[in-house]
Amino acid sequence: MSSTKRTSFEMLASEARKCTICEAMKDKTAVLSELNGNLEPRVFFIAEAPGRQGADRTRRPFHGDKSGENFQVLLDSIRLTRDEIFITNSVLCSPRKPNGANRRPKKSEIGNCADYLRRTLDLIKPRIVVTLGSVALEALKAVESHDLTLKGDVGKVYDWNGGKLIPLYHPSPQVIASHRNMDRQLEDYANLGNELKRIRI
């Protein structure tokens, strides 16, 4: 990896961490640093937002909470390691309800963060992008338009932005309990594993 790429990423991450555009998250700090992963990843994952017990606390996406534990099981199922991936979010800070619980990010907040997502993708230029959940899939439309839906296109491989896009469900306990159980998600990740083998990344 070039030192220019590393330096450019560090500058982008520093800029994101100073951002205070979203009124409801001015007291939060963007989760974007070397802890997000490999800048030349086999897979570039995009999720919803840093969780209260997870990335907002540990500063590492999908680390420190149950969603992170589930994500690790799914990665292990296709022998994909943390050192081989990059993970970011549609919204880089942690959106909270008044009682401190996690909440879904607002469209305006996703829009405020869209430029960071676009610039991160432009810098890393991944061959495979995987969205985790409907928020991430929708957020990608700001980078390059698509008409995919999570329910209709989960686990399928699409051409997008010069590479491949695979929509998957979020590994949160709530999603696994009510929308896409772990067995189904393991099948989805098997499709991702097959694509990695097919294009030999």
List the helices and strands and how they pair.
Layout: H1 3-17, E1 43-47, H2 55-58, H3 66-77, E2 85-89, H4 107-124, E3 128-132, H5 134-139, H6 150-153, E4 158-160, E5 163-168, H7 173-178, H8 182-198
Helix pairs in contact: 1-4, 3-8
Walk me through this protein's architecture.
The protein has 201 residues and is of the alpha/beta class. The protein has one domain (3-198): 3-Layer(aba) Sandwich (Uracil-DNA Glycosylase, subunit E). Helices cover 41% and strands 12% of the residues. It is built from eight helices and five strands, in the order H-E-H-H-E-H-E-H-H-E-E-H-H. It has helices at 3-17, 55-58, 66-77, 107-124, 134-139, 150-153, 173-178, 182-198; strands spanning 43-47, 85-89, 128-132, 158-160, 163-168. It has a five-stranded mixed beta sheet with strand order 2-1-3-5-4. Helix 1 runs antiparallel to helix 4 and helix 3 (66-77) packs across helix 8 (182-198). 39% of the residues are buried.
| Proportion of residues in β-strands | 5-15%
Total number of helices? 8
For the record, the CATH class is: Alpha Beta
**CATH topology type:** Uracil-DNA Glycosylase, subunit E
Major sheet attributes: 5 strands, mixed
**Average pLDDT, to the nearest integer?**
96
Distance between the termini: 16 Å
Strand order of the largest sheet: 2-1-3-5-4
Instruction: State the order of secondary-structure elements, H for helix, E for strand.
Output: HEHHEHEHHEEHH
Q: Using the CA coordinates, give the radius of gyration.
A: 16 Å
Q: In CATH terms, what is the architecture?
A: 3-Layer(aba) Sandwich
Helix residue percentage:
40-55%
